[in-house]
Amino acid sequence: MRFCCFFLIGLLSPLGALADDPGLERESLRFLTEPLPPLSFLELETPTGFAVELVEALKVELGEPGDIEVLPWARAYNIASRESNVLLFSTALRESRRSLFDFVGPIATARIMVYKRNVDSASPQDLQAAAKLGSLGVYRGSPAERLLQQAGVANLEVSSYPLQSLRQLLAGHVRFWCQVDLSVARLLMQAGTAESSLTPLFELDRIELYLAFSGGTPRATVERWHQALARLYEDGRLAALYRKWFLLEPVAAAPHILWRITPEGKSDGI
Question: Who contacts 187 (Cβ-Cβ below 8 Å, separation ≥6)?
Answer without folding.
Answer: 162, 163, 166, 179
